[in-house]
Amino acid sequence: MPRGARDRRAAILRLASTSGLTSVEELSNTFGVTASTIRRDLSQLESAGHLARTYGGAMALDAHHETSLRQRSGQAFEAKRSIATWAADQVRTGETILLDSGTTTGALARELATRRDLTVVTTGLTVLQELAQATNVRVECLGGTLRPLSQGFVGSLTEAALERMTFDRAFLGADGVTAEHGICEADLQQTRLKELMGQRAEHTYVLVHAAKLGHHPFHAHAPFGPGWTLVTDTAADSAATAPFHARGIDVVVVDPDGRVREEPH
């Protein structure tokens, strides 16, 4: 193997071990090579037992641990921004919406900060920080037990408050998502809460960038509810979205400008 390829694959493995999730698009831009070259690198690393392939990328086999919100904040930044742009366009004046904890919902909160006549209910500190100075948005927080890694509230107090409310729309995040099992998170308190959130909203959206499709690093899951919509970015190819379509799950794929890519059904 040429030294350049060997060095690049070693660097890819270091990145995957650090960030947990590594997408083909990001690696192609980082190393200045084609996506097909990156896919060959990932195949070699997978064959050697160093990586597990995911839709759109890969993760290190020893990276099945929960990363902090700060670590995740720099990952797939542009994809999260495009997803947040589309999601903000769905919100109507006068609505009451629910935002999960996480970096993508934090990006959505930033998009909504200049809105008027809007109520945002959240479990996430990132959302609270983004909307702290939004004088025309009413902000309500579902309290409970704070999880330091996710910077979100969970537990019986959170669930009790949630059961007294309904929402026009709920926007959920995830550590991973599969068509078979639904949303994947680090513990059952998180997945139970997400399931309850979706049940309290008229419209529910799961916001995940492409590298999380087909990825389930943990063993706690929340199934997709009826009518829920999966929203991802254009790094997701048809192979990544097909399993969701096959189960009747609505999928929205948005480009960097927040426009929708037509999906086969």
Automatic annotation (TrEMBL):
The answer to whether keyword Oxidoreductase applies is: no
Q: Name one GO molecular function term.
A: DNA-binding transcription factor activity
Task: Give the matching Pfam families.
Answer: DeoRC, HTH_DeoR
* Domain of life of the organism encoding this protein: Bacteria
Asked if the Swiss-Prot or TrEMBL record annotates the protein with the keyword Transcription, the reply is: yes
Alphabetized, the UniProt keywords read: Transcription, Transcription regulation
Q: Which residues form the HTH deoR-type domain?
A: 5-60
Stored PANTHER family? AGA OPERON TRANSCRIPTIONAL REPRESSOR-RELATED, HTH-TYPE TRANSCRIPTIONAL REGULATOR SRLR-RELATED
Q: Protein name, please?
A: DeoR family transcriptional regulator
